[in-house]
């Protein structure tokens, strides 16, 4: 082979590798796409024979985008592109994952608690402590506390609520040294730091965002294990599946999917990615889909989950019925009135 042919093949080979590198080059984007519709029963740990596979939760697939994935996502109508900043804010990847785990844990607890209350079966809500959601840059505990830590005591006094912790911290003079007892990955840690002034007030704080961390137990016992799935959006479907177990009744012979958060009063809240969830449910052959009518401040009626879900079914020419729900009773009433 002469030199010109060798040079030509080397250039072709070099171009090939350049294209490969370009295609797999990481971007700063995350792609959200339709995920999976799966039976809630797959996640519920219970010996009950009423753990039927008739209620489905639906996910949104979220993945880091390499260049080829980012470019081809424009050819997929239900793929959305977001920057890492838009998705995580100022949180690191590990902090973001911890927050998603907390949201899922809260969703699971709310679902079990509300279903038990609705079914009038015994349950208890155990207070575990205060969950750390974020740590402000000026906090003296910035490099000590971690997102996902649960604060169980301060200066050897057990924490019973966010309000109790905040009221105690507020009484301390600025730069007072305190000891926090925290649970991290099942292990106890003692962290020492100083309180600092809360911006715009005369009070002290520790510079963290907090939420209450609880755990629900019921009789019969139900545990929901979502694994690596994060977020609160499966709350409604979790609660329906738990209610079915608690009441010893198969509520429907149909496969029903849906989405929406659930709170302690049974209210169903708005979630993100409703269009992608509708597409995923339709691909699974689901015929009925519950969509929240929740309309938070600043959201137009045409922008509610229910309205977006109806629009999506029309776009994809789906015959799936979109059922509006504002609370748990709306979903339950529909199921009972359409029971086969």
UniProtKB/TrEMBL annotation:
Family matches, as SMART domains = PDZ
- Reaction(s) the record says it catalyses: Hydrolysis of proteins in presence of ATP
- EC number(s)? 3.4.21.53
Question: Which named protein is this?
Answer: endopeptidase La
Give the organism the record lists. Lactobacillus rodentium
Return the similarity comment.
Belongs to the peptidase S16 family.
What PANTHER family would the database entry show? ATP DEPENDENT LON PROTEASE FAMILY MEMBER (PTHR10046)
Keywords, ordered alphabetically: Hydrolase, Protease, Serine protease
Pfam families for this protein? Lon_C, PDZ_2
Its Gene Ontology molecular function terms? ATP binding; ATP-dependent peptidase activity; serine-type endopeptidase activity
Residues in domain Lon proteolytic?
225-338
Q: Does the keyword Disulfide bond apply?
A: no
The catalytic site is made up of: 233, 277
Lineage top rank: taxon: Bacteria
GO-annotated biological processes? protein catabolic process; proteolysis
Q: What is the lineage of its organism?
A: Bacteria, Bacillati, Bacillota, Bacilli, Lactobacillales
What PROSITE patterns does the database record attribute to this sequence?
LON_PROTEOLYTIC
């Amino acid at each position: 082979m002469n030199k010109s042919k060798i040079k030509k093949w080397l250039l072709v080979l070099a171009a090939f590798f350049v294209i490969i590198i370009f295609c797999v080059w990481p971007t700063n984007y995350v792609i959200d796409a339709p995920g999976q519709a799966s039976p809630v029963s797959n996640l519920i740990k219970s010996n009950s024979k009423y753990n039927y596979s008739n209620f489905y939760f639906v996910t949104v697939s979220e993945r880091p985008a390499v260049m080829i994935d980012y470019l081809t996502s424009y050819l997929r109508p239900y793929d959305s592109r977001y920057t890492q900043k838009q998705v995580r804010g100022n949180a690191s990847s590990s902090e973001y994952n911890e927050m998603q785990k907390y949201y899922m844990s809260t969703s699971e607890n709310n679902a079990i608690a509300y279903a038990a209350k609705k079914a009038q079966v015994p349950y208890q809500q155990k207070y575990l402590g205060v969950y750390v959601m974020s740590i402000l840059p000026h906090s003296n505990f910035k490099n000590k506390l971690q997102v996902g830590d649960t604060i169980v005591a301060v200066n050897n006094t057990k924490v019973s609520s966010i309000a109790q912790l905040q009221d105690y911290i507020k009484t301390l003079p600025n730069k007072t040294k305190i000891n926090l007892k925290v649970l991290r990955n099942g292990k106890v840690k003692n962290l020492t730091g100083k309180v600092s002034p809360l911006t715009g007030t005369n009070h002290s704080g520790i510079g963290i965002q907090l939420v209450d961390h609880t755990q629900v137990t019921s009789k019969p016992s139900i545990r929901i294990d979502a694994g690596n799935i994060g977020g609160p959006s499966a709350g409604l479907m979790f609660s329906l599946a738990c209610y079915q177990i608690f009441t010893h009744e198969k509520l429907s012979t149909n496969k029903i999917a849906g989405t929406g958060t659930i709170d302690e009063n049974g209210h169903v809240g708005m979630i993100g990615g409703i269009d992608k969830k509708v597409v995923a449910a339709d691909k699974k052959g689901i015929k009925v889909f519950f969509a929240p009518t929740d309309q938070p401040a600043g959201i137009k009626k045409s922008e509610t989950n229910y309205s977006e879900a109806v629009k999506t079914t029309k776009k994809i020419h789906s015959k799936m019925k979109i059922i509006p729900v504002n609370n748990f009773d709306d979903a339950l009433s529909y199921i009972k009135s359409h029971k086969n």
